[in-house]
Structure formats: C-alpha cells, structure tokens
Amino acid sequence: MKKRISIAQLLLVIWMVVMVLAVVSNVRFAKTAEHPYHEKMLEASSLTKKAFDTIKQYKLDNGMPIVSEDKLKTGLIGEEATAIFTTPGNLHAKRTTCNPNWAAVIIDYFYKANLKSGDQVVFVFSGSFPGLNIAALAAAEVFGLNTAVMASIGASSYGATDPDFTFFDMMCLLNGKNVLKDRLDYVSFGGGSDTGNNFHDEEEIFWNEDLENLRTIEEIKSSIKARIDKEGVNFIYEPDFSTNIDKRIEYLRQLVPDAKFLLNVGGSSVGIGVDAETYIDSGFQDPTTKMTSKLSSFDVNKDNWGLIQYFLTKEIPVASMLNIRGLASDYGLAYDPDVMPAVGDGEIYLIKTGNLTITIIAIVVSVAVAVFYFINKRKLNAEEGQNERNYILC
Fold it and tell me: How many whole angstroms separate alpha carbon 70 and alpha carbon 336?
C-alpha cells in the first residue's frame, strides 16, 4: 500500500517549486540599466587613458624603453627586478591593471561608500600598480573629492620599478602637464619596514652584465629623496611600524579630519598591516559587515594593524585592490587582454536588477505556505497526541 503524501509535505513541495521558479525568472528577466554614475565612470576612465598616454609619450620622447613584457605598449609595466623592486609580482595581473576602465570600478566604490562631491578620502598607494593609482586619482578628480594621498616608492615586479622614473616621478609628470590636479601629500620608500631596507645595490641585480656606473642603493635612495624634497612633498621615514602608523594617523587627522573612505592599492604593510593578507579581502569592505571574526582575530596584536584596520574600527568604509584576477572577474573587466580595452568596455558600467513583481509574489506565496504548513503541522500534532492518549486508555 502506497503511503499518501501529507498536506504538510505537499506544501513544502509547492514552496520549493515556487522558489525555484522565482530564482529562474529573476535571472531570466533581470533588467540591465546604466550604473547611476555611468557618465562619471566614462569621464574618469577617459581621464585615466589621457594620463596613461601622457606617460607613454614621455617615455618615447625621452628614449626610455617600453619593456618587452608590456605587450600593450602602455609604458606602465616595469622591469621584473631592479634596485627598488620589493617582492615578486604577477605579470598578468600587472598588465590587467593597465586598463583605464578600472577608474569606473573605483567610482563604484565611491557610490557604495555613499560619497558626495567635497567629501574627504584617503588613498594609500605602493608603486606596484601605477595604473590603478592613476585611475583612483582620476576618479577622485571627476567625483570632486578632497584627497589625502600617501604613496611609497617600492614596487613588486613589473610595477613602477624604474629607480629613475618611479610612481612619484610619474605623478610629477602628470601634475606638471596639468593632466591630474591632485598631488602626493606624503611619500616613503616603502618596502621592508617602509624604509626600503629590502632594496638592492644594482650589482645584485645586474651582476652578470657588463654595465658601467652601477649604483649602490644608498646612492639611488639619495637621488630619489632629492627629487622628493625638490617637489616639496612630505617624506616619511620611520622604521618602527607601530610608530609609523601612529604618525600617519596624526597626519591624516590634520589633513582630512572628516575622512569618509580609504582606498588601498597594492600590498604595502602601511595599508594592509603586517602579515595581514589573510585578514584583508580585496574589493569594497563595509565596516558594518567586516567587523567580524577576521578583524577580531587580528585584535591579538594591534601593533600589526595597518591603516585599513584602523579605518574599519572607526566604522569608515574601505576598499583594497590586491587580488586583481578576482576583482577583474567581479567587475567584468578583461584579464590580461591582448588588445587595450576601449573606454566604456566592461560590465562595471551596467547594473542588473531583478524583477520586483516576481520577488513580491514569491515572498507572499512563501509566507502563505509557511502559515498553512505550521497550522497543519499543529493540527496533526494534536491529532497524534489524542490518538496516543486513546491508545493508552484502551
């Protein structure tokens, strides 16, 4: 004899069918619309491309080589190893960040952080991803934000690794040609202890080549420091990490006392903290959801905190750009493309919205099913209890 399906079981089947149909319908009939800041995204990406082109032209005009690894010929890819390179870098990721449409991603971060024109923000850059740094500054300019910019000289492989044309020098060029208005406010060597203590004498890098006039790292640092002083940019040199962060926080309090957002680009310890990669996710981070076990587990040694952790504890949203493959996938940008993407190319410029009508119907049906289920379940429980008492009395 076949067992009959109970009303409760039937209701659960109906509920599952409704939910599956709702999900499929929402995906099938999702609407695509322009991002609320679509025009600003296009403007920021266009400005980023102009900055990229300016750097490339400067290199060409001054006989500076475009390295063979720079397959898109952007001028933003550096040598694998130089005196100021700090750690190994992923070439595919570096080439991916030479896409001007990353400025649109950063505009989306501003949107998620509910920023308005005139708001104060903090940028923390290393020399590892000069393209992303420039995209951030272009986005801030278009958005009308007041920035406090902290940058370091050191760069991982294929970043801004030329000791004579660092990211700092790129910014001096762009400022001098009035391509970008915002300037760097604070500069440090970066690298080990934020003092460049893992930089290299050139003979360490070029030991097997017959080159003359190889420089020591102290000579290179001195040359870079002289250029920084000439531009009147504040230089930070503090080997004690905790003291370094405290000083930076004080500088920021003076410069942007009402900062509403922090963007970190690259893996500098100043930004993400010491040994903090496992605690800090890439992308936008809402402090209301990020103050969880990840940050709590980092509480054991607050001396290792970088500026990201500090801002999160102050309930200020942050974004970190480090896992480039993941970020490119999230925002529909090409990973290591063979052709330079055009401005406006990428899913980031569009948003998908579900069908609200279908969602409302699914919710109503789900509530109705739940109500009927529990009423029926209570009735069945009562009947089973009565049957059990009758059985005992027999």
Answer: 11
317 inside domain: no
Tell whether 72 and 218 lie within a shared domain.
yes
Contact 264, 242 (CB under 8 A): no
Which pLDDT tens digits describe the chain residue by residue (394 residues)? 455 556 656 666 666 666 666 555 554 555 789 999 999 999 999 999 999 999 999 999 999 999 999 999 999 999 999 999 999 999 999 999 999 999 999 999 999 999 999 999 999 999 999 999 999 999 999 999 999 999 999 999 999 999 999 999 999 999 999 999 999 999 999 999 999 999 999 999 987 666 678 999 999 999 999 999 999 999 999 999 999 999 999 999 999 999 999 999 999 999 998 875 555 678 999 888 755 445 555 555 678 889 999 999 999 999 999 999 999 999 999 999 999 999 999 999 998 765 555 556 656 666 666 666 666 666 655 555 555 444 444 4
Query: Residues 11, 101: one domain?
Result: no
Domain of 366 in residue numbering reads as 7-30+354-388
Q: Count structural domains, the chain.
A: 2
> Is the full-model pTM beyond 0.70?
yes
What ranges make up the beta strands (E) of the chain? 31-34, 120-125, 146-152, 186-188, 234-235, 259-265, 283-285, 318-321, 350-353
Any domain includes 277: no
The rounded Cα 328 to chain-centroid distance in angstroms is: 10
Residues 22 and 112 in one domain: no
